[in-house]
Amino acid sequence: MHWLDWIVLIGFFIYTLWDGLRHASSQNSLESMVLAGRSIPWWAAGLSVMATQASAVTFISTTGLSFMEDMKFLQVYLGMPIAMVILSVTLVPLYYKMKVYTIYEALENRFGLRMRLITSLIFLISRGATVGFSIAAPAYVLSLLFGIQLSYTIIIMGLTATVYTMFGGIGGVIRTDMKQMVLMLAGLAFCFFWIVNAYPEEVSLTDGLKLAGKLGKLNTIDLNFDVSERYNIWSGLIAATFLMLSYFGADQPQVQRVLTAKSLTDARSSLLMSAIFKIPMQFFILLLGVLLYVFYIYAERPLLFLPENQKDQQVELMYKEEFAQLSKERITWANLCKDGIPDACELFQEKDMAIQKLRKKAIKKMELVSKEDRDDTNYVFPFFILSELPPGLVGLILAAILAAALSSIDSVLNSLATTSVVDWLKRLHVEARSDEYYLNATRWATAMWGILATLAALMFGETEAIIEVVNKLGSFVYGPILGVFLLLWQKRADSNSSFWAFIVGLVVVIFSGGLVMTEAGTHWAWQFPFNDLEEGYKYVVEYLWLNPLGVGIVMGIGLLFGRGNSRQTM
């Protein structure tokens, strides 16, 4: 990497550390450490909520997902505005009324300590694992950049984020999140215009969109109702609404940002800010991946975007000549297709499909040789940055990706530490301790979770699209957790019925998430939900639908067996 890029990156890290730590001395109480004294303006809290969600995964994996497939992933966010409005009139006012540090305090108030501990424990386990993916995402960039093993870059990224988060507190997190969000958006906008400007002179943006459309890359809305299909408009409007309700209303990292706002009105405004801007932003990022695909129809590219230390040179040479020939033929038919020559588009599609088949064949061959999984989805965007952008700008875009990574990692680590201390250490202490004691405990808990998250990133290693894995893992717990929170308003629900409803809900969701069947539906089986699907099989219930399933099971059992003898109703 050019020396100018190193200056930009080092400068970014120095500024971020300074900005996050410059008010560390003001973190003199538990409330200031985890809620910033409830003094954050609505727009700052809103930007922090968006930055927490728009991690490096957004840069790396979402662009890679639309590059490899299409834009149907956008449908996941269709339920977000609905969810934000519902939360603004239900759970958020409840949290402000109770003045909680963590959302699980609300559950104890109604259903007792047992429910508070089990739900917070599930949060700690699930989010402790998913933050590992937030560490792994920028590690892909560093792996490609330095040409070293992914495990080394995961360790570097994880430990760096952990040290930074220990001392900044939630106030420092939000201050840096605001600036990092601006840098992220600027980096995305720059890449968009750079890609389009790099098209051949005879290929306009309109031509690029036409070619992408012919390949199905612009497919966004699927009107078919099928719970075994991953993305369609119904999973977006129904299933994903439950996902977003749980993610923004019953998940500590998101809610904690909202609870830092000065008032209930400010908290609602911060949520609605995300509701307004998230879908357009996600559409833009997916479109970026599609336009990048068109760019590589004409620009020189490898068959696989894997870094050199993960490739098998003999396998690559085996397919090199065939790939080069197919690429030339695809360019020829692409030009004729955009010029409206009859039947040219069909031949263009055939050549593109042949290239995709060749790519899959090469990946399978490398997997057989290496005995390890291989997938280059998360390397596409980093490859473009490092091979196409000039010195200085590479450092700027890498800084934007790392900013996205830090804004996600620090937020989750802070919330994991908050939950560990407030819901477990402080709540279970027989004797009260000083604020200083719990403040230091929060910092040590941050260090512990940072190490565990790094180990989780090492354990999961290579995945397909990281963003899908994060949402999938969350869907196994979000539905049952949201169901328990919804029982707060049901007079019939009690401590025992809600607890066992939650346990049964988790079991049913995990079992349902592992059910697979043949494409024709003639044979059903069960497998571990995160194992690769065998060819010719698909999930009976795709992961988004696990959210309403979990809610339904918990609500049903909680109401059916409840006796209405809980402490109080909402």
Keywords:
2 domains; 570 residues; single chain; mainly alpha; Sodium/glucose cotransporter; globular
Structure in words:
With 570 residues, this protein is mostly helical. It has two domains: 456 residues, Sodium/glucose cotransporter, CATH 1.20.1730.10; 68 residues. A three-stranded antiparallel sheet has the order 2-1-3. α8 packs across α9 and α9 crosses α17. The mean pLDDT is 84.
Q: How many domain regions?
A: 2
> Which sequence of SSEs, written as H and E, runs from N to C?
HHHHHHHHHHHHHHHHHHHHEEEH
Cα shape: globular
Rg result: 24 Å
Quickly name the level 1 CATH class of the largest domain. Mainly Alpha
**SS element count, helices:** 21
Spatial order of strands in the largest sheet: 2-1-3
Write a compact overview of the structure shown.
The protein is mainly alpha-helical. The chain has helices at about 5-20, 30-35, 40-55, 55-70, 80-90, 90-100, 105-110, 115-145, 150-195, 205-215, 235-250, 250-260, 265-300, 315-340, 345-370, 380-390, 395-430, 435-460, 465-485, 495-515, 545-560, and strands spanning about 515-520, 525, 535-540.
How is this fold's topology laid out?
Layout: H1 3-21, H2 30-35, H3 42-53, H4 56-68, H5 80-89, H6 91-98, H7 104-111, H8 113-146, H9 150-197, H10 205-214, H11 233-249, H12 252-259, H13 264-298, H14 313-338, H15 344-370, H16 380-388, H17 393-428, H18 435-460, H19 466-486, H20 495-513, E1 515-518, E2 524-526, E3 537-539, H21 546-560
Antiparallel strand pairs: 1-2, 1-3
Helix pairs in contact: 1-9, 1-17, 3-9, 3-12, 3-13, 3-17, 4-8, 4-13, 4-17, 5-11, 5-13, 7-8, 8-9, 8-17, 8-18, 8-19, 9-13, 9-17, 9-18, 10-13, 11-19, 11-21, 12-17, 14-15, 17-18, 19-20, 19-21, 20-21
